[in-house]
């Protein structure tokens, strides 16, 4: 098993080609072609869309493959070594493409954005001279200017961590751009993190925690809803600690923001990610009971089941707090699906401490989870700790943990079979005549139905379970496609 294997559909590290098509270009005679490839978390997915929207008025249209592009942006992730190293294999491939383009008299510009850009800055250009521009996450609103400057002066690096709200300065997406992206969308409501877990690079790559004002979030969500989006996942590394300035000037917390977003016409479903156990407030737990739009799914990373390891990670809570929060969430919303993140082989982790993690998993019962081998990251306190765990031990523990989590996920999905659930259909399936959507519990559901169902929320009877997916039938016979 590898570091990056997990027990759910990939969330981090999976390459995500940018969603297209983007807005029609304004002004420029012939459009320039832009390809954005994102790695990492959902925030990078959101950022990729905003980059496309910000470059659209400059005459850029997005394309599906790097081979067609005039500008390639790699939107990178630094969270684990494997994620960061992927960038360099991509850059090797792009070097070949760039040389081929030059031989044809064409110019291919290569930009690196995201958390590796922030962490490595000028070192990237030294290590990979194919890179024309390095741009950190706080500077995306300056992309048009930076791209123009890098065209004349390749090797430009912009990684300032400024407190200004880049989101206010990024271009809003056009209705056409949003419509091309489907019916479920991410909206970043908080950037950065100030928690400083000892293993984590995020406070360094994204800066301190900043919450966007309520009005800005509301404007984003309203625009998305007007373009047909039905489901919003609000994002932050510590999203349940959201404290954005409200229209009244007072700070609003997440439950109040969610209640307000639920009033936006067209928004039928709300989710949030990622939460910290300590910030799981009574009000937020009550929202899972009282706000029908808030989906019964909670991603609450715990990382470890050992109190000593949790303390060494600077998570600032023990296993009992986790159990207590889960009990309260389940009391408020008994059918809630619980998901989590785990790290195995944190420095000094003993067999007994790993057994505590296995015990926690057995006691909680997860619907899905992501699990990783601890990866020492430059500049983090844990990387300098003694007693680093050998890779073979990490692999063994990851295999055992993932087997348990997989079994729990299969059991959770199997228990859904026979039930009727509301599915929001998002995209065509792989097989002809099939479409795919999400259940309230964030399970992928495949159904035989026509494309006219995309964007609709309809009752589906779940009839079978695959390895990570469910198969269903439309409950309403009238909505079923007519057999020919
Ligand atoms: N803000 C979120 C986590 C963001 S990073 C939270 O606190 O829950 C996503 C996940 O990557 C983390 O939950 C953790 O499980 C994993 N991760 C982060 N740093 C890591 C490291 N150095 N090695 C292995 N996994 C790591
Ligand atoms: Fe990283 Fe911890 Fe912040 Fe999550 S809460 S982003 S793990 S420092
Ligand atoms: Fe990766 Fe940066 Fe997200 S390190 S997980 S892309 S915040």
From TrEMBL:
<feature type="binding site">
    <location>
        <position position="115"/>
    </location>
    <ligand>
        <name>[4Fe-4S] cluster 1</name>
    </ligand>
</feature>
<dbReference type="InterPro" id="IPR023404">
    <property type="entry name" value="rSAM_horseshoe"/>
</dbReference>
<keyword id="KW-0479">Metal-binding</keyword>
<feature type="compositionally biased region" description="Basic and acidic residues">
    <location>
        <begin position="1"/>
        <end position="14"/>
    </location>
</feature>
<keyword id="KW-0408">Iron</keyword>
<dbReference type="InterPro" id="IPR006638">
    <property type="entry name" value="Elp3/MiaA/NifB-like_rSAM"/>
</dbReference>
<dbReference type="InterPro" id="IPR005839">
    <property type="entry name" value="Methylthiotransferase"/>
</dbReference>
<dbReference type="Pfam" id="PF04055">
    <property type="entry name" value="Radical_SAM"/>
</dbReference>
<dbReference type="InterPro" id="IPR038135">
    <property type="entry name" value="Methylthiotransferase_N_sf"/>
</dbReference>
<feature type="domain" description="TRAM">
    <location>
        <begin position="414"/>
        <end position="476"/>
    </location>
</feature>
<keyword id="KW-0004">4Fe-4S</keyword>
<feature type="binding site">
    <location>
        <position position="200"/>
    </location>
    <ligand>
        <name>[4Fe-4S] cluster 2</name>
    </ligand>
</feature>
<dbReference type="Pfam" id="PF00919">
    <property type="entry name" value="UPF0004"/>
</dbReference>
<keyword id="KW-0808">Transferase</keyword>
<feature type="binding site">
    <location>
        <position position="197"/>
    </location>
    <ligand>
        <name>[4Fe-4S] cluster 2</name>
    </ligand>
</feature>
<comment type="function">
    <text>Catalyzes the methylthiolation of N6-(dimethylallyl)adenosine (i(6)A), leading to the formation of 2-methylthio-N6-(dimethylallyl)adenosine (ms(2)i(6)A) at position 37 in tRNAs that read codons beginning with uridine.</text>
</comment>
<dbReference type="GO" id="GO:0035597">
    <property type="term" value="F:tRNA-2-methylthio-N(6)-dimethylallyladenosine(37) synthase activity"/>
</dbReference>
<dbReference type="Pfam" id="PF01938">
    <property type="entry name" value="TRAM"/>
</dbReference>
<dbReference type="InterPro" id="IPR007197">
    <property type="entry name" value="rSAM"/>
</dbReference>
<feature type="binding site">
    <location>
        <position position="193"/>
    </location>
    <ligand>
        <name>[4Fe-4S] cluster 2</name>
    </ligand>
</feature>
<comment type="similarity">
    <text>Belongs to the methylthiotransferase family. MiaB subfamily.</text>
</comment>
<dbReference type="InterPro" id="IPR006463">
    <property type="entry name" value="MiaB_methiolase"/>
</dbReference>
<keyword id="KW-0963">Cytoplasm</keyword>
<keyword id="KW-0411">Iron-sulfur</keyword>
<feature type="binding site">
    <location>
        <position position="77"/>
    </location>
    <ligand>
        <name>[4Fe-4S] cluster 1</name>
    </ligand>
</feature>
<feature type="binding site">
    <location>
        <position position="41"/>
    </location>
    <ligand>
        <name>[4Fe-4S] cluster 1</name>
    </ligand>
</feature>
<dbReference type="GO" id="GO:0046872">
    <property type="term" value="F:metal ion binding"/>
</dbReference>
<feature type="domain" description="MTTase N-terminal">
    <location>
        <begin position="32"/>
        <end position="152"/>
    </location>
</feature>
<comment type="subunit">
    <text>Monomer.</text>
</comment>
<feature type="domain" description="Radical SAM core">
    <location>
        <begin position="179"/>
        <end position="411"/>
    </location>
</feature>
<protein>
    <recommendedName>
        <fullName>tRNA-2-methylthio-N(6)-dimethylallyladenosine synthase</fullName>
        <ecNumber>2.8.4.3</ecNumber>
    </recommendedName>
</protein>
<dbReference type="InterPro" id="IPR002792">
    <property type="entry name" value="TRAM_dom"/>
</dbReference>
<dbReference type="InterPro" id="IPR058240">
    <property type="entry name" value="rSAM_sf"/>
</dbReference>
<feature type="region of interest" description="Disordered">
    <location>
        <begin position="1"/>
        <end position="29"/>
    </location>
</feature>
<dbReference type="GO" id="GO:0051539">
    <property type="term" value="F:4 iron, 4 sulfur cluster binding"/>
</dbReference>
<keyword id="KW-0949">S-adenosyl-L-methionine</keyword>
<keyword id="KW-0819">tRNA processing</keyword>
<dbReference type="InterPro" id="IPR013848">
    <property type="entry name" value="Methylthiotransferase_N"/>
</dbReference>
<dbReference type="GO" id="GO:0005829">
    <property type="term" value="C:cytosol"/>
</dbReference>
<dbReference type="InterPro" id="IPR020612">
    <property type="entry name" value="Methylthiotransferase_CS"/>
</dbReference>
